[in-house]
Amino acid sequence: MKIRVSYGTAIVLGLVHARQDVAPTTAYLLFDRGCIGQCSFCSRANGNVRSQKLSRIIWPEFELEQVLEKLTTPPLPFARICLQTGYNPESESELKSLAQQFVKTGIATSVTLSPSQTLLAGEMLEMGLDHVGIGLDAASPPTYATHKKKNWQQDWPALLDLLSKVGDRIEVHLIFGLGDSEEAFCQRIQAIIDGGGKISLFALTPVNGGNPPEFAAYRRVQAFRFLCEKQKVRVDDCQFADGRLTGFPIAGANLCEALENGDAFRTSGCGNCNRPYYNERPGQLFYNYPRPLSSPEFTAAVEVMALADR
Question: Is the four-CA dihedral 138, 141, 143, 144 of positive or negative sign?
């Protein structure tokens, strides 16, 4: 059996010989037997197994046995395995079998699933997986219908039910840049956190066209996500104008302190996840920093938010 391995992961494992300036801190793997999803932003949607890319990342194939050997040879190169998947109910049995092999390594293992697979998510957690990521992606019914082409009235209640049972082990993926206003996006973040879940925040990567979000808007929703998870702000306490986030209930030095030296602008998700270059090319400004920010980077990130009463 073969499995796809992110290019950066393959470098760390010695499967590819190349240099990288920021190495992944999680082993990112991809299981896809032909995704039947129709996500507008994904190059592997609609069963396009010929694409070697997911987001901006190239995913070369290797024999599973070889990958498992590399993952489990001391000193262990990764503290976590993230098994990303294409949505295809016909391959769920094979997915379970594959996931069990990773669980047996003793390395914390996460899997990413579709909102239509909340029952499977519960089953896989019972199998011993550490966390499950759910690709909600869009933050409101209109953008969900447009970009996911799925049933919000069915999927959102099912996700809330899952969160009520195992929310502390669920990371909900949200993509900013699909057309949701900052206010609608923050409201969805609040609803997920209130439900017991956490957020894995992504910027739209326009591999199928469109435009990435402006950094100012993305930094604002990053800050809100971080402060909301830390229970330092709620959406009702924030100021909005025409859908734009204009202010937090804390400001100035207090806001900078609450953003914890830029941790608010780092990759969010399961523990040990940094996802370098998922949303940008090498050399570009990071949407999600895969490492600690320098003092000038933190200052720039705060300033670009252009909040009132900073």
Answer: positive
Listed residue (169, 280, 269) closest to 222, CA to CA: 269
Which tokens is 187 given? Answer: 């409201």
CB 82 within 8 A of CB 26: yes
pLDDT tens-digit profile, the chain (310 residues): 999 999 999 999 999 999 999 999 999 999 988 888 898 888 777 766 666 657 777 899 999 999 999 999 999 999 999 999 999 999 999 999 999 999 999 999 999 999 999 999 999 999 999 999 999 999 999 999 999 999 999 999 999 999 999 999 999 999 999 999 999 999 999 999 999 999 999 999 887 778 899 999 999 999 999 999 999 999 999 999 999 999 999 999 999 999 999 999 999 999 999 999 888 888 889 999 999 999 999 999 999 999 976 4
* DSSP characters over 140-175: SHHHHHHHT-S-HHHHHHHHHHHHHHHGGGEEEEEE
List Cβ neighbours of 287 (8 Å cut-off, separation of 6 or more).
202, 203, 212, 213, 215, 218, 279, 280
pTM, two decimals, is 0.95
Reading the block at residue 148, the tokens are: 């996911």
User: What does the DSSP 8-state code read for residue 245?
Assistant: E
Q: Cα separation of 230 and 228, whole Å?
A: 5
Backbone angles phi, psi at 67, to 5 degrees: -65, -45
Q: Whole-angstrom Cα distance, residue 109 to residue 35?
A: 21
CA angle 54, 212, 138 (to 5 degrees): 70
Q: What is the number of H-type helices and E-type strands within the chain?
A: 10, 12
Domains of the chain: 2-217 (3.20.20.70)
